[in-house]
Amino acid sequence: MADQEIKETGAVQIDIEISVDKPRDAVWKSIVEETASWWPADFWATKTHRRMVFEPKPGGRLYEEAEGGGGLLWYTVIAIEPPESLHLAGYIAPPFGGPATSLLRIALTAPSGSTTLLKISDSVFGCVDGHTKQSVAEGWSALFAAAKRYIEKK
User: Fold this and answer.
1) In angstroms, rounded to a whole number, what is the distance separating the alpha carbons of residues 140 and 121?
2) Beta strand segments in the chain, E
3) CB neighbours of 93 closer than 8 A, spacing ≥ 6?
4) Sign, CA torsion 39/41/47/50
5) Per-residue pLDDT tens for 44-99?
6) Architecture (CATH level 2) of domain 15-153
7) How far apart are CA 23 and CA 8, in angstroms?
8) Cis (ω within 30 of 0) for the bond into 82?
9) Global pTM?
């Protein structure tokens, strides 16, 4: 048996804030009920994707549904407090930069009645390196920028 490389493990914390010019209830509804409408095409992980599904309840899933019964589980909901926060747990498989685990928190605060502050916190642990933090931060920034554009156009 050939020698197997032993990978180092570690953890990174990513914190991002995005201001959305809509009331918190409208932002919450768009995030949890209209995910498929704002999810960017370049974030699909499956080749034959059909839709993004979010089940906003404890144990619910955030997943891609693909043709032929295929798909990819992004996250499982571990806690939800409408319209204040979502807590999700997900796995990052080796083809996507892992193996690692992601604990994601999305919090919505309302500094004013017409503006919502989205706070995205992701703790990633497992096989991470110097590039992981930047890559994850850029990914969440792009994903939630797309959500912001969608929500503010409504």
Assistant:
1) 9
2) 10-20, 49-54, 61-66, 71-81, 85-92, 100-112, 115-126
3) 99
4) positive
5) 988 888 899 999 999 999 999 999 999 999 999 999 999 999 999 999 998 888 89
6) 2-Layer Sandwich (3.30)
7) 43
8) no
9) 0.91
Q: State the Cα–Cα distance between residues 7 and 73, nearest whole angstrom.
A: 24
Per domain, the residue ranges of the chain are 15-153
Tokens matching residue 100: 């690692």
Tokens for 65, please give them: 């549904």
Q: Which two tokens stand for residue 50?
A: 């059909």
| Integer CA distances (angstroms), 96 to 27, 28, 105, 128, 142, in order | 28, 28, 20, 11, 17
Structure tokens at 27: 């932002």
Q: Which two tokens stand for residue 11?
A: 């953890």
**CA distances for 70 relative to 51, 58, 64, 65, 125, angstroms:** 11, 23, 8, 6, 27
Dihedral of the alpha carbons of 43, 48, 51, 52, in degrees to the nearest 10: -40
